[in-house]
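COMPLEX REQUEST
Ligand: flavin-adenine dinucleotide
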Amino acid sequence: MNFDFSEEQKLLQQTARDYLEEHCQLDAARQVLESSAPYASDLWKGVAEMGWLGAAIPEAYGGAGFGHLELALIAQELGRALAPIPFSSSVYLATEALLLAGTPEQRTRYLPGLASGERIGTLAHSEGAGRGGSPGLTTRIEGDRVSGTKIPVPDGDVAGLIVAVVRDADATSLALVELPCEGVDVEALDSIDPSRSQARVTLNDAPAEILGERGAGEDLAARLLDRAATLMAFEQIGGAERALSITRDFCMNRYAFGRPIASFQALKHRLADLFVAIELAKSNAYYAAWALQNDEPDLATAACSARASASDAFELASKEMIQMHGGVGFTWEYDCHLFYRRSKLLAVTLGSADLWRDRLIERLTG
Amino acid sequence: MDFNDAPEEAAFRAEARAWLEANAQAVPTGGLGENAEAVADEKRWQALKADAGWACLTWPEEYGGRAASPMQNVIWNEEESKYKASVNIFSIGQGMLGPTLMVHGTEEQKQRYLRPMLRGEEIWSQLFSEPGAGSDIAGLRTHCVRDGDDWITNGQKIWTSGAHYSDWGILVARTDPNVVKHAGLSYFIVDMKAPGIEIRPIKQIDGGSGFNEVFFNDVRIPDSSRVGEINDGWRCVITTLMNERSSLGMSLGGLGIDDLIELARETRWDGSAAIDDASVRRRLADYYIRLKGVQYTSYRSLTALSRGATPGPEGSIGKLVSAPLRQEMASFAVDLLGEAGVLRGDASAARGAWQSAYLGAPGIRLAGGTDEILRNIVAERVLGLPPEMRADKGMAFKEIPTGSL
Ligand SMILES: Cc1cc2nc3c(=O)[nH]c(=O)nc-3n(C[C@H](O)[C@H](O)[C@H](O)COP(=O)(O)OP(=O)(O)OC[C@H]3O[C@@H](n4cnc5c(N)ncnc54)[C@H](O)[C@@H]3O)c2cc1C
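STATUS: Structure written out below.
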């Protein structure tokens, strides 16, 4: 057994960290949050040039051909930097969907654009408040036309390709919709973390093409979400680690009652607990990444564990971050809220930790 | 033991209801008192209440109250909250500073300040916290130097809620740096419009600006505005903080457990109502039980109060439980909505109220004593556990170590 990343992989991670330290300080997320820009376009271009968008895309399709372990480490660094770009939508969702189910022709058509960043992709599955199972879907495909409303669609306002989960006669299918096009209406929406975009996408007899086997949408969507959840877990862990590190440093330098607040056991133990939570999430995520890279059937349960523990760890980290900073943690000026917002956004996108726990038990027992 | 209104309580409740019903149109519906219009609305409502005897019910009659029992005050608050969801912008004065003046103020100060405070003609803010001193409030550095009949004040306060619409503030400042930290503080009434005071709003994480930085540059405060003895301000601070913890509103933008249950009823999970899910039910039950526990605990202290006990450190339980619970509930509400939970505004359930609550909730866990400080109070003052080792014990204030933040 060798349960660690290789030297080359770690080197890649270090390169990613260095690059982001130079090009994506925390005020990058703040700038997008405070402006009307949907994402940081310069950073997007830079990330594309680094080859990260195509990290898991084979060279034949314009990618860098690294693999999922490398992609996971890049995700962790992007999470650490709270990168305000549609990476998760375009890479973990749209690109993965094509890698999972695309025909060679579909891959040839879309993967090069996704790898170069010229085209942003996303997945449209949610149809409003609540948990929607596929049987409840109202977005339908008939022939090669789809109709229905998807909300929220992450990064839907900047997407040039949407993978939609749709009702197809009595079954579910995945459908590709190219944007902009006739019959597609996109409206950007306000969210808890405006450093990332959300949209409502209304499809009205929009031209679409089936992705993967007809009627296999439910299974494909589930497998796609497992892959995305694994990569997202790394992004969440990166965010949690950064929050912990900033909070640790703050507690060392903030004094109350004549001593550093880090010396109060009430805080010390909680910082230790947080570290432990992050380490467990990381180990679960490593296992899931291995399963993803090697197409192991274990991914079905490993993704659930990685996702639930990473969501919990990042949410805990951002909550503790504000609490331990005291009053300054509640200000717009300090960065704590960037983490508090992002942790919630990532915890809710792809479904809550509780949803993944339910899924885990179903899969363990089913 | 009887949880029903006693006959005289029922009569009192009926009287309160009748008055509220008759005056329902005058109830302000505005936001958090951040704009002049909302403040004016709140002032109108307060004056209307005061003139009819419904302001600061527990205050003595000589200051405009009706010497009502704590129970009657609770009954009034329950009834008023059915009509009014907005935050009470007078609560810092009426709930904390007024009661301190009543105990420690001179007769002249009481005559001058209490009635306009009660009637809402003058709004008060609390100038305690500083950039370097929040939990450790006695570590504050804003200082006053005697100059004839005046004190000259320099320094900076922070997190001052409502400073931007306040007329008066209560300032705690250092009047002797050469003694241990608690022993060199004095307590002053300060005119918020005095020359040398500069107020700058601070933007909060939820986008609002309820609190401020307040700078003091050679601000003159007449000695007649001092409350309590010179260097004995800590005694007044304790009175204020005791009242603060029992008066702090635990409102979450008006959202309660009923609203959360309603949300779980309306939200669909895989074809059924989310409330049918066992994990949702368990959580809702857990929130309900904790909320009721806090509510009934406060009734128990009320009963003790009405028998003449003084508010004790166990008053900290309320905020210690409610504040993190509110954050948990808001966070759960967002999760309940699925991926749409991230949305704010009209596209969201309850028009984004839960998302706003999620962003506002961390502030409640910090304001008026953090979770950690409240636990220390319960541990040390209720359970009698030994205090943490004090790194600054017995040290003159100016020798206490400080950090870089
Ligand atoms: C919304 C809001 C409104 C406010 N309004 C007012 C106001 O009107 N007037 C006013 O004067 N102040 C006000 N405050 C300030 C508030 O009282 C302080 O923020 C609070 O007391 C914490 O102080 P601090 O911010 O300096 O944090 P610190 O005291 O530096 O605390 C940082 C962290 O260290 C922890 N800590 C500190 N000491 C200990 C210990 N002994 N053991 C364990 N942990 C410890 C704290 O709990 C916290 O987690 C307000 C604050 C907020 C958020």
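REMARKS: Residues 125-237 of chain B form a domain with the Butyryl-CoA Dehydrogenase, subunit A; domain 2 fold (CATH 2.40.110.10). Residues A 254, 256-257, 261, 264, 266-267, 323-324, 326-327, 330; B 125-126, 128-129, 134-135, 159-161, 211, 363, 366-368, 370, 372-373, 376, 388 surround flavin-adenine dinucleotide (CB under 6 Å).
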